[in-house]
Structure formats: structure tokens, C-alpha cells
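FYI - complex with S-adenosyl-L-homocysteine, inputs then prediction.
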Amino acid sequence: MSERVHILDMTREELREQMAAWGEPTYRADQVRHWLLRELETDPARMTNLSASLRARLAAEATLNPLVLATETVSRDRMARKALFTLSDGQAIETVLMLYDRRRTLCISTQAGCGMGCPFCATGLSGFTRNLTPGEIVAQVLHYARWLHDPEAGGRDAAPVRRPTNVTNIVVMGMGEPFANYNATWQALRMLTDPQGFGLGARHVTLSTVGIVPGIERMAEEPLQIGLAVSLHAPTDELRNRLGPINRRYPIAQLLVACRHYVERTRRRISFEYALMGGINDDLIQARQLADLLDGLLCHVNLIPLNPVEGSPFQPSPPERTRDFVAELKRRGIPATLRLRRGIEIDAGCGQLRRRVRQELPLRAIRAGT
Ligand code: SAH
Ligand code: SF4
């Protein structure tokens, strides 16, 4: 069985080398990238400006789209859609498209599973399988970009697109910890923000980390102006240790030093994610502790009502406690927003569709190719 080359996994330089190895002029690399990332084409037969020999080679020896759509769930208001994709080795990942606020925001995954073990998170409860490749990360965006251009085609084999994409925002908040797969994630983000690639402005991309300090330090040096979100969820080490083992490695004080350095270096505001859990982290005292912690830092707190996960004891905070918590933060001068529980009925929380499909569908349905 011959190994196919994965075109979306290649940098521009690597694709040039591949073209040379196939006896093609190196400018073909840019043409192929243009077809994949701008025209959103997946069928080499329609890449009309390539030589017939290159089209044949791409069809026979290359993979242009590493994802197979296994299931898609649509919210009742039809404003959120969640795709479950099967990868070539049978692993499953998910991607969510949200159509609220006149935005078309994609939430993408960087790993199959996650090894960080946060006990309130469906992905964390499922464990880690493997890192995604750059192409597997990019292809999630291309799938829904195709769908947005031609919903009838369902994201597959859409007719060639002659318009720029209209995905407006990307959040790296799906399955996995992006800083545990740093290089592939950034290679993907470079393709997605490259004006000659997918071409989305870096300011429209936000990456969320569980709080891996070396990752934050590294991101502070990146030239791309991608936004940073940090999942904080607790104002004290005692509590944060319970909400994720990562805090033992990078406790809050160390995390905030890295955050303050990041803001100084980039002059960009950090978002802190805080999932409100009833009786766990939603007390007014905790709101005050959080405000003290973030005092003077250029930041914004995103309060997320917890999306309850089967098999986890954590429950969402009741509405009045949530309201009081937000009000207290604001009173203390910390900019805070309560996010709505949108997409909840499609399990648009981290890793939740994958868990449900695993439980409810015959395994065959999601293990095609294994
Ligand atoms: N691993 C990264 C990014 C993926 S998780 C991180 O942890 O930041 C994206 C966000 O979803 C994180 O803020 C995470 O804490 C949050 N999250 C996970 N499970 C959740 C749940 N059940 N309800 C609400 N938010 C959840
Ligand atoms: Fe991993 Fe993020 Fe889920 Fe924690 S919250 S287990 S880091 S995906």
C-alpha cells in the first residue's frame, strides 16, 4: 500500500520541494495552495490551471482533505452546527460552526482527545489519543468555509468557489490543548492567516489554553496577532488544583506572571475563561478574590455557564448567583461578560458530541477506516 502525501500538512517550502520531486516547476506549489485554501477545491480534476500530469498525480498519490464527515448535529434554532469527523486512522474529532451575532465563528480542535484531565470537561474525561496534524486542523476550517459558500453541498465536493471565504472568526477552543500541540497548531494558524493562504485576519483568531506557561511565553514572541484566552476557572490554587492537574505544574501566581509578561510584550488584552459551577467557584468571595488577582491587568473575563457533562459531578451555577458574580466583578472594575449557553442542545461543549456518538451509534459508524 503506497503512502499518500498530505498536502495540507506541508509548509509552502515543503510543497515547493514536493513539486520539484515530482518534476514540476516550483510555482505549482502556490497554485495548489491557492486551489485548496482560497478556492476551497478538493478535487484535483477541477484544478484547471495545473498540468494534466500534476492533476493525475495529486489524485493518485496525495490526500487533499484528511477529514471524512461522520455526523453533523444542528441546533434547533439552526444557528449552531457541530461536525464529527473521522480521521484516516479512525480517530474522531469535532468542529462547531456558530452563526450568532452576524459572525460565522468556527471552533476548531487541535488534538484527538486531551491529556490535561480537567474533570468538568468531556474531552478531558475521554483522555488523550493523539495530536492533530496541521492539515487536520486547517481542513476543519475549509470544510465549513465550503459549507458556508454552498450549504446544499454539505461541505463535500462543493462546486469551485470564486469568492473570498466568509468565515469571520476562529476560536481554537475545541478538543485538545493547543499548547500541547504547539508546532502543528501554529503551522495551521499561519496557513489560515496567510494572505496568500486562507487569508483570515489574525485578530479574528483566538486561542484558548488551559494555562501552560511555556506556551504563553512562546506565544508572546509570535509575530501573528492572535488573541489569547486563558482558562482560569478558579481564584485560588486550592480550588484550581481540583479543577485540573495542570495547576500543580503551573500554579496561579506563575500563570499570572506569564500573562502579565504577555500583555506587556504584545500590548494585547487577555481573555480569562471562567466556567461557573454551582457551589464550586460561584461565591461572591471568590468573585472578589478573582478581581484582586486580575487587578491592573489588561484583561476581560468571559463567564461561561458550565455545560454539564454526563458522569461529572459539576453542575452549572444558578442564574441569580451567576448574575451576582458578574455584577461583583464589574463593581470591582474587572470587565466581564456572561456568555449565553448557545448551542447547548447540540452539545457544543468541549468533546461532548464525540462522547455521545461513541455511546449511541454502532461503533462501526465512526470507526470507518480502522
Ligand atoms: N484546552 C483548551 C482549549 C479547549 S477547551 C482550554 O482548556 O482552554 C475550551 C474552553 O471550554 C475552556 O475554557 C474550557 O475550560 C471550557 N470547557 C470545557 N468543558 C466545559 C464545560 N463542560 N462547560 C463549559 N466550559 C467548558
Ligand atoms: Fe483539555 Fe481544555 Fe478540556 Fe481541560 S478543558 S481537558 S485542557 S480540552
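The chain is about 35% helix and 20% strand. Confidence is low (pLDDT under 50) at residues 157-165, 356-370.
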